[in-house]
Amino acid sequence: MLARIAGYVGVFVAGLFVGLITTLQHRSFAPGGLLLGLGMVVAFAIGLRLVSRSRAVTFSGLLGVLTAQLLLASGIRNSFVVTADPLGYALTLGVVIIAVVALGWPDVQRRAGYDGEQEKDIKE
Questions:
Q1: Taking the CB of residue 28, how many other CB atoms lie within 10 A of it?
Q2: For 33-74, how does the pLDDT look when each residue is reduced to its tens digit (9 = 90+)?
Q3: Please, are residues 66 and 19 in contact by the beta-carbon 8 Å criterion?
Q4: Are 44 and 18 in contact (CB under 8 A)?
Q5: Residue 80 confidence (pLDDT) above 70
Q6: Which domain holds residue 28?
Q7: Count of structural domains within the chain
Q8: Across residues 93-110, what is the average pLDDT?
Q9: What is the DSSP letter of 76?
Q10: pTM as predicted
């Protein structure tokens, strides 16, 4: 149980790091920085789903990405990293859409190939 919680916290911290990089660099060279950042979030989400096969782990990681984005958009000392312009809206909406698709994607069970076909024929 403790190892599972530590795993969720570790994935959340990794998500914070991905969100920090994406949010700070989305304006670096418009719109290329935004596209590269969203591509990094997509790769992170796909990697979490493939490695863990758990929506809870994916949720924890993407929550870290959204948390970093929220903290940087909140205007610390009146300094906004994510501003209310098309790039800021695209970043926020893009990350949310990626999270919804990654969490809603169905689980795909791998078939055993030849062995699975053979068992199916024997059962019939």
A1: 11
A2: 999 999 999 999 999 998 887 889 999 999 999 999 888 888
A3: yes
A4: yes
A5: no
A6: 2-123
A7: 1
A8: 85
A9: B
A10: 0.80
